[in-house]
Amino acid sequence: MLKLFTLPGEGKIRSPSPFAWKTEAMLRLSGLDFEKEYVADLSKMPKGKVPVLQDGEKLIPDSSLIQRYLTETYGIDLDKHLTTEQKAIAEAFRRMTEEHLYWAGVYNRFVDPLGKPFMMKAMFDGMPTEQAEAIFAVLQENAKKEMHGHGIGRHTQSDIYAFGKADLDAISNYLGTKSYFFGEELTSIDVAIVPVVASLILTPIDTEIALYARTKANLVAYIERFDRAVFGE
């Protein structure tokens, strides 16, 4: 049986990692049998992060590499009915979401002061305050360094959120009144977009970017629709 190494979520937030959430959704849609194992020490994972898929003795890290593996090994292709043009559009939106909007979400949780109270409670509830503060400070500094290396972290909070709002506008405008990104059938771009957008909408943090995401009624409905279709709730 396949095993997915992931991080535990809460409620409809299936994982604090949108990429692990994405991979679990992909596996559920594939119909393949799999089990989950929650990871306590990410340093033991290939590349130091989740998701990681185990198939026998083989470990496959990274959601995009896992998607490729499922297609090449098991013939799982959520995009087989898409045209070449649609696949190109999907790839552009995936990269925008996972490599740009995602970082606005990281800022929302770990850098914006409004995100800290929720993150402290969610991650360190019951831990001595001094210890929790020290760990969060390390996580925050790591987030800042990663964002600076990416480039987006070199901007002001106002500009970072403006970039994120533009990404949300693009997703909302393209989705329009459709059930899913390309119509009535789920594809891999839905699996990539929903966890990133849902992390903003469903996490109870009232930052500027989160509040803006919640004004997009079609995105709120999209997340609910996706959750029912994939997780059956």
UniProtKB/TrEMBL annotation:
InterPro entries linked: FAX/IsoI-like (IPR026928), Glutathione-S-Trfase_C_sf (IPR036282), Glutathione_S-Trfase (IPR040079), Glutathione_S-Trfase_N (IPR004045), Metaxin_GST (IPR033468), Mito_Protein_Transport_Metaxin (IPR050931), Thioredoxin-like_fold (IPR012336), Thioredoxin-like_sf (IPR036249)
Gene3D superfamilies attached to this UniProt entry: 1.20.1050.10, Glutaredoxin
Residue ranges annotated for the GST N-terminal domain, each copy included: 1-78
Residues passing through the membrane, by range: none
Origin superkingdom: Bacteria
Name recorded for this polypeptide: Glutathione S-transferase family protein
Organism: Aggregatibacter aphrophilus
Upper lineage: Bacteria, Pseudomonadati, Pseudomonadota, Gammaproteobacteria, Pasteurellales
